[in-house]
Amino acid sequence: MKIITVIGARPQFIKAACISRLRPSIVKEIIIHTGQHYDDNMSTVFFKQLHIPEPDYYLNVGSGTHGTQTARMIEGIEKILFNEEPDIVLVYGDTNSTLAGSLAASKLHIPIAHVESGLRSFNKKMPEEINRVITDHLSSLLFCPTHTALDNLKKEGIVSNVHLVGDIMHDSVLYYKTKAHKQSDILTRLNLSAKKFYLTTVHRAENTDDPNRLTSILKTISQLDHDVVFPLHPRTKKQIEKHQLHIYLSSPHIKVTDPLNYLDMLMLESEAKMILTDSGGVQKEAYLFKVPCITLRDETEWIETVTEGWNHVTGVNTQLILNTIDQFKLPPKHPALFGNGRSAEKICQILLEFLKSIKKK
Ligand code: UD1
Ligand code: UDP
Question: Which single residue of 57, 95, 220, 350 could bond 9 by disulfide (Cβ 3.0 to 4.6 Å)?
């Protein structure tokens, strides 16, 4: 039995590591790295730190417009699928690499398994929303992290081969958090005191490509009352340079870093006083570490974290964010929203059963 895993962006490396670790040995896995993320600190570092097998194919697609980037990926993936003839293609999340893997496989009538299926922001201006809706509708096997995701699929008429398995990033946090505490010296390196700093990440197109929104976010962090760690995504770095917004980051309480490795990131997340982010993964990790979160967007797919009171969706208005931080009350309850940390195990089992069933036909 043969699966082809298509990955290309930072969060996909982290998710794929969980499955690669547990994959049953009778299933051969071939990894295609599209090259969507290519800087060492956005790609190689995760393969090394999380012991992900070297990709069998590297497409070297790089950056570009959505059309160019996705088209290059499809062209490369299609050739490999022709040659390798896998039984299934495994895709993760909602990036252009996810979409390309799904489109290439579906046209060749190869079944698709989608991990992190059913997420919706209901905002079609988000490229990720388009990618995930299309991928879900093309998939033969759908793995949902939450009840909300399951309900979203049901409303779109997708009901067969849909499995609620919990969130694979929870598995990852449980697996690596102790290691992070043992190995990461990031608090010392950045001269931080536990629970006395904010952690901020920003990379969404809606925030980085709109100079007004980006300025508003930077202005806000320049006014925070404790240290702020700000690992800069390359997209954000480029926009800050383009619009000459460094001035907002010049205060010594703002610690700008390059993108961090996973263990340093987990360490910072677990020890932060509060997290301000537009990342999907970081919102979840904040919840898992019981750290209050401010989501710098106008909506979120991880709505349960908001309902439970651990996450406030503020958009980018400075005064609203500062007021929300001031008034944040830690909720008394912290239910297990993302499963029991055994999602990868469940996914592998279901995948194996599915492969056996299609082999019989
Ligand atoms: C992509 C995903 C997004 C995901 C994010 C995770 C899409 C449409 N977006 O966004 O869903 O949340 O990854 O981080 O797939 N760049 C570099 N070096 C790199 C990678 C990117 O310099 O290694 C710069 C380039 O200028 C590029 C820009 O970042 O144009 C954006 O990269 P891209 O992969 O297109 O989108 P992300 O914002 O990273
Ligand atoms: N992450 C990391 N280093 C960083 C920023 C994020 O290791 O400098 C990790 C983070 O802990 C989470 C994942 O990357 O596991 C989230 O990826 P990202 O925010 O790029 O994308 P999203 O989840 O929004 O798609």
Answer: 95
